[in-house]
Amino acid sequence: MTQPFEIPPAFINVHYDGQRIPDVKNQADLTLGANCQLYAYELLRHFGKHPPSLRSSELWSDNCYTKKTTAYTIFDLMLYNKIPQAYGAHVGVYVGDGMVLHLSYAIGHPVIQKHTELLLQAKYACFIGAKRVLT
């Protein structure tokens, strides 16, 4: 199986850093690391999108800059958690063919995984849903 999406070079060797959250100083400098949200938002910005710098629960409740979707397309934000709530949810980016690019603490670096495989992991077993950035 071929990867449906090629990770841009600047996004390949990013290390997970839970302190590097949206709106952190030097936000766009991913050589300093990122959490899942910051990584996902900067990836979308790299491709010309304008996601808001929100935490997971804020992202899920937002209706101004994003909309909920069940028909996933490339660059939709995918939210997962171990419980059915958006607070603290993990954020990845849909990259096509049922695949999600994400940066997680457990793996430590970006990886593309099947959406269905993420759901088999306890920490991602609850799919909160997908959000599409409108601008």
Description:
There is one protein chain. The protein has a single domain (9-133), classed as Alpha-Beta Complex (endopeptidase fold (from Nostoc punctiforme)), CATH 3.90.1720. Helices cover 16% and strands 25% of the residues. The chain is built from three helices and six strands; from the N terminus they run H-H-E-E-E-E-E-H-E. The chain has helices at residues 36-46, 56-61, 115-119; strands spanning 66-69, 77-81, 90-96, 99-103, 110-114, 126-133. The N and C termini lie far apart (32 Å).
Write the layout of secondary structure elements.
Elements: H1 36-46, H2 56-61, E1 66-69, E2 77-81, E3 90-96, E4 99-103, E5 110-114, H3 115-119, E6 126-133
Antiparallel strand pairs: 1-6, 2-3, 2-6, 3-4, 4-5
Number of domains: 1
SSE series: HHEEEEEHE
Number of strands: 6
Question: How many angstroms does the end-to-end distance come to?
Answer: 32 Å
Ranges where pLDDT stays below 50 over 5 or more residues in a row are none
What structural category do the secondary elements indicate? alpha+beta
CATH architecture: Alpha-Beta Complex
Major sheet strand order: 1-6-2-3-4-5
CATH class value: Alpha Beta
Keyword list:
135 residues, 25% strand, 6 strands
Tell me briefly what this model is.
The chain is α+β, with helices and mostly antiparallel strands.
